[in-house]
Amino acid sequence: MIVHEPFWLMLxxxxxLAFVVITIFAYVMLAERKLLGRFQARYxxxxxxxxxxxxxxxxxxxxxxxxxxxPRGANRVLFxxxxxxxxxTAVTGIALIPFGTTGEILGHEFxxxxxxxxxxxxxxxxxxxxxxxxxxxxxxxxxNKYSLLGAARTAAQLVSYEVAMGLSIIGVVMISQSLSLVxxxxxxxxxxxxxxxxxxxxxxxxxxxxxxTNRVPFDLPEAESELVAGYLTEYAGLKFAMxxxxxxxNMIVLSGFGASLFLGGFDGPWLPGWIWLLLKIFVFxxxxxxxxxxxPRLRYDxxxxxxxxxxxxxxxxxxxxxxxVVGVFFQN
Amino acid sequence: xxxxxxxxxAAAGALGSALGVITLRNPFKAAVxxxxxxxxxxxxxxxxxxxxxxxxxxxxxxGAIVVLFLFVxxxxxxxxxxxxxxxxxxxxxxxxxGVGVAAVIGLVALLRSSLPxxxxxxxxxxxxxxxxxxxxxxxxxxxxxxxxTSLVLLIAALGAVLLARRAVLGERGR
Lengths: 332, 174
What we know:
Chain A is mostly helical and 332 residues long. Helix content of chain A is 67%, strand content 2%.
């Protein structure tokens, strides 16, 4: 099943994946602005190019020409490293999402994913864990009290919801008996999509995914009505763009992750696998945007209480029930 | 060859950032250096063909524990740590020389030893770092020790909750 690839092919694939995810990011952002417009009974951006399709390019051009500003009192090194760290870990995640089994180009067979590890699921968590530091370091290094508060909130929120997300995924891992995303998708192709076996786990995963990406209603780290913009306050120009980009790339990667774990990944009839995966990713992304247009922001104590006293117990009970069922009825 | 280069980078990263942890004056920067150490050690685990251990090292230590360190340090603020005046004065070179001599002796002893890998080639290690191997070790071979450890951790967590509860109640009483 797994094809051995020459080194140059891996390099091309890596560049292609990065290019694809960055292009998707640009148009997810545009889709969000247009959809939010519709949700609020207005048009959204439609002036730049045909139907506003050139808007992402215009946004980038504008941000490039902004002043690259470092506030007095900031820790220069960490202030510059933070956005790079965030974007690096976000884009790396896409390498682990399987888009299909194998393909062929110019007579060379290749795997339709960046890489398949026997601990892919854990590596995605590890990448997210390092990515958090970008937000925390950025907030601290800005030398601004609002930034610091945003960073502290980020730390508390992400650590709390990462636990619930980890527990929600272990159910799938127990059923599929593997930590490799490719194996998990293949397991669903031979049985059923795991959303049918793990509906509770899926719901916990969805809530935790929204919290992990700092999206409404869990956007406490950058709550503009109380913290200016949290850890983002002192960032401008391209560094600001890198944080925004990382947020959207994280959304895309988490959507691909959720689709592979619960919705069969690239599994689907008639169409090629990668189209199915992209469709599923867009369903997730639409959900993210819909939530943003619908819900107000939680209060901080509500966020913490919900995470520890509601979400975590549900995830734990789901885990224990799954373990018993798998252990009793499906001993291979 | 590529493995040796990766090992050199990871080992240098681990040593360099560990040096940062103990020499940086600012506790926040020291904690950031600690992240570097933990990630470098995770790379070393990866080179030792233990991907599961490497991932867990990053998730648990770098992803959760150091986040809490930074959280506490950031809230305590920028004030310099409580340190008395430097009373070693002109005798400061004595401990420094001592550490240097000890390091040289240790290095010589290590190079003259016959530990595996120093003289002879490494023996091929069996599978110890894959998810399956670790699962078997935990719930098959060492189940009792594993459960005992989890009990100890549970007691520690309960103790922390009780201590915090006493402090919170005391504050409310005032």
